[in-house]
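User: Hey, my collaborator sent me this sequence without any context and asked if I could get a structure. I don't really work with proteins. Can you help?
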Amino acid sequence: MSGGSEVYRIEASGNPLRVWSHAQDVVYAIAFDSAGRAIVGAGNKGNVYRIESPSMYTLLLHMPATQVTAFQQGRDGRIYAVTGNVGKVYEIGPGLEREGEIESDVFDSTMFSLWGRVSFEARLNGGQVAVATRSGNLDQPQKNWSAWSSAVTEPKGGKVSSPAARFVQWKATLTGDGGSRSPDLESVDVAYLPKNVEPRVEAIEITPPNYKFPGPSTLLSLAQPSQSLTLPPLGKRSSPAFSLDLSGTTPSLQFAKGMIGARWLASDPNGDALVYSVEIRGAGETEWKPLKEKVAEKYFSWDSTAFPDGEYRLRVTASDSPGNPPGEALSARLESDPFTIDNTPPRITNLAATRNGGKLQVRWHAADALNNVVRAEYSLDGGDWTVVAPVGKLSDSMELDYELSLDAPPGEHTIAVRAQDDYDNAATEKAVVK
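Assistant: No problem. I've predicted the 3D structure and written it out in structure-token form, which is a compact way to encode the shape of the chain:
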């Protein structure tokens, strides 16, 4: 191990049992007091520890010298400690000091906090325990920390008078009865209330059209297969088929023509529960219109067919009101990037079918007002739909031309063509050739 020490007790059976460890102090000497408890001398801070049990130890002394290198048993329960750097001999015990102090580690409340009451549990044994506090905004007590507060001497506690800050530390002064008894301090509690900090909405993502999130209590029946769509992790680009798994709490989407949804990433620094409101605004509009209030989940779906085709934005507002008194709740909001609502299929025009010997020559034009025409198909005499490429081979435009040359025997034939846009809106037209 790098730095620090461990002390093991070898049982009569030969089994080693770790009874003490420290991440920084290095053990140089071990002795035993009159009660048979191990006394540990360490460096490089001059500390002397007493091992009470495998789970408890006491910091007995802090020597002026940096290293306690040896012990020697003396008369009447005394122990002599030898130190190095600087070399001295100290007499320890057997009596108790009338007064001693213990300081806690610095406690980090993670944010600016108000301090409430400080209380403690102790067996006074005829003595007294006095607990004081100090606070600051740096993780190490320095000159810009507050001074030690007046002490609380009643176990039931009293108000912490240290100023509000992020960090706090307590110091307990134990005073004995002047004889052989000393107070036993078991615990110290400091109540605190972190300053309420506004939540954060970090990202909003519009989900693919024609899919919706299930309701909070929706249960899918195994007997009724459902077409569903699983989203990728928020912020990750999806594949065209949207087949990636989502690690998180956002459920899979279910196919529902005309529906559209959004999900968002939000958090609260205080860990408060959040509730959301969702609003929508169209291009050229000035007022936000409410879509849904008091949304508990971080996602929402709505029927887009109630809105005219066009460009829109969402605004999500997160509030920590469920966990805060009225008047103290805070909120934050974020607007989405623009997105399109399109429920109108492409228009198929100039459909013409003519016979040329044993061939049918078919031409048509497809156009969409808002999105690219991404797919076209034809069906001859009610047969299977067959995909056809545009004249330019690429489906990369809102307006495309198509041409076909099909083998056809003599007689009447019906040619049907279908065009689909990027939002799964499809239009169908037909022509008859005799």
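In plain terms: The chain has four domains: 5-95, 100-194, 200-341, 347-433. You can pass these tokens on to your collaborator as they are.
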